[in-house]
Amino acid sequence: MKIIQTVSQLEALLQQYRGEGKTIGFVPTMGALHTGHQRLVELCASENDVCVVSIFVNPTQFNNKEDLQRYPRTLDADSELLLKADADVLFAPSVEEVYPEPDNRIFDFGLLDKVMEGHFRPGHFNGVAQVVSKLFAYTKPDRAYFGEKDFQQLAIIQAMVKQLQLPLQIVPVPIVREPSGLAMSSRNQLLSEQQRSEAANIYRVLSESKLSVESSTPAEVIRWVVDRISEVEELEVEYFEIVDGESLQPILSWGVAESVVGCIAVFCGSVRLIDNIRYK
């Protein structure tokens, strides 16, 4: 596996691969890699001639400086996992390499980024679009892989690719969960064992809520989920929305959308966790 830290070296290497007729797959990450990331990388490696993974903790998508500072950074362990997952190239640039000057671009995603994460983390998705568009420009991949745990982010990336008319395929990859049901996340490393156990209640409650779909309205399911999770001492729900899986707008009845997804953000102590579940 080649480890590269500059854009010029990356572009030169990938241009060489493209000249040889090789397809390029790309997995952008912020590091602190886990089994969920490994699934993304393994799929990328199996579907492309060259698998490129980036590790970059992007400052423009954090609206909380303390959260940025606390985000786990484990480059050595990450490199070992990527080797096992058959990655070919690791791109690990500095902040100065990605942002030699401030990125003042403002993206317009309509209502997609005004709800849920966008409401509680203003500016977050603009920062995501800034860095991912830069990474796409460096790598020019044929395919790029994103986990469905970040459901709203996936929708934003797909919208950005359409807006910029980028010639690449976005490949969604299902959520990978711990044996307890807790969605794999780099932030799980910040949880104590007790908190990890408590956090498993998020997915347990979401799963149980599917049993109420035929007898309850979306609003009633939302109240039930929030009440059940709030009964767990360590957990505090920031939001739970049941939305149209395409527009991400809240729904009032089950029949109004072909795809319906419940998206949630929960604080476990000071650690913010997100998850989602598909109702149809």
Number of structurally distinct domains: 2
Query: SSE order in H/E notation?
Result: EHEHEHHEHHHEHEHHEEE
Determine the CATH topology of the largest domain: Rossmann fold
Question: What is the terminal separation in angstroms?
Answer: 40 Å
Q: How many beta-strand segments? A: 9
CATH domain class name of the largest domain: Alpha Beta
- In CATH, the architecture of the largest domain is 3-Layer(aba) Sandwich
Helix content: 25-40%
Q: Can you walk me through this structure?
A:
It is a single chain. The protein is of the alpha/beta class and 280 residues long. It has two domains: 2-173, Rossmann fold (3-Layer(aba) Sandwich), CATH 3.40.50; 186-275, Pantoate--beta-alanine Ligase, Chain: A,domain 2 (2-Layer Sandwich), CATH 3.30.1300. The chain contains ten helices and nine strands. The chain has helices at 7-19, 35-47, 65-70, 75-84, 95-98, 117-120, 124-139, 151-164, 193-209, 218-230; strands at 2-4, 24-29, 50-55, 89-91, 143-147, 169-173, 235-244, 260-268, 271-278. The protein has a six-stranded parallel sheet with strand order 1-4-3-2-5-6, sandwiched between helices. A three-stranded antiparallel sheet has the order 7-8-9. Strand 8 and strand 9 (271-278) form a beta hairpin. It is globular. The model has no long low-confidence stretch (mean pLDDT 96).
